[in-house]
Amino acid sequence: MAIPGPTDQAVEFRPFGAFRQPLRDGNIFKIITGQAEPDVSREEDHMTQPFTIETFSKLVNTKFKMQYGNSQAVELELISATDLGSTPRQIQFSLIMLGPENAPLMQGIYKLEHEKLGALDLFLVPIGKDQSGVSYEAVFNRFVE
């Protein structure tokens, strides 16, 4: 059975157990836990450390380009970076981004580009839509090693 995905292409539906290995060993796990590194196709994009709230706090009120579908893109503005109760053992924070009213309303992993961070993939969830546009949230939650 195929269901539409964030790229507007059909995505094969697989039962939950089928995802265990890719989630444990693959990039999706790293993206969800905030351990993903940006695309290193440009040297200045390479980051060796996981994302932190400090990474994004400096970028509040700046623009990200979100790619979706086959070749569509919209501009998102980072509205806030909020600590969700981090402890010395666990980092927890969220980002709120605002896009135009015609932005996609599906949650998923989207490729974002920023002039300072470069390219990165984030799991975004639409959390509201009003006259100002579509709001998205990305939540980071990872243990400190």
Task: Describe what this molecule looks like in 3D.
The chain has 145 residues and is mostly beta strands. The chain has one domain (2-143). The chain contains 3 helices and 8 strands, in the order E-E-H-H-H-E-E-E-E-E-E. It has helices at 20-25, 27-32, 53-57; strands at residues 2-4, 10-12, 63-68, 72-83, 90-99, 108-114, 118-130, 133-143. The strands form 2 sheets. Strands 3-4-5-8-7-6 form a 6-stranded antiparallel beta barrel. A two-stranded antiparallel ribbon has the order 1-2. It is globular and about 40 Å long. Mean pLDDT is 78; it is low at 9-29 and 38-46.
Based on the model shown, name its key terms.
single chain; 145 residues; mainly beta
Total of domains: 1
Q: Identify low-pLDDT runs.
A: 9-29, 38-46
What spatial order of strands do you see in the largest sheet? 3-4-5-8-7-6
- Intertermini distance: 40 Å
Task: Give me the strand/helix succession.
Answer: EEHHHEEEEEE
Number of helical elements: 3
TL;DR?
With 145 residues, this protein is mainly beta. The chain contains three helices and eight strands; from the N terminus they run E-E-H-H-H-E-E-E-E-E-E.
Secondary structure layout plus pairing:
Blueprint: E1 2-4, E2 10-12, H1 20-25, H2 27-32, H3 53-57, E3 63-68, E4 72-83, E5 90-99, E6 108-114, E7 118-130, E8 133-143
Antiparallel strand pairs: 1-2, 3-4, 3-6, 4-5, 5-8, 6-7, 7-8
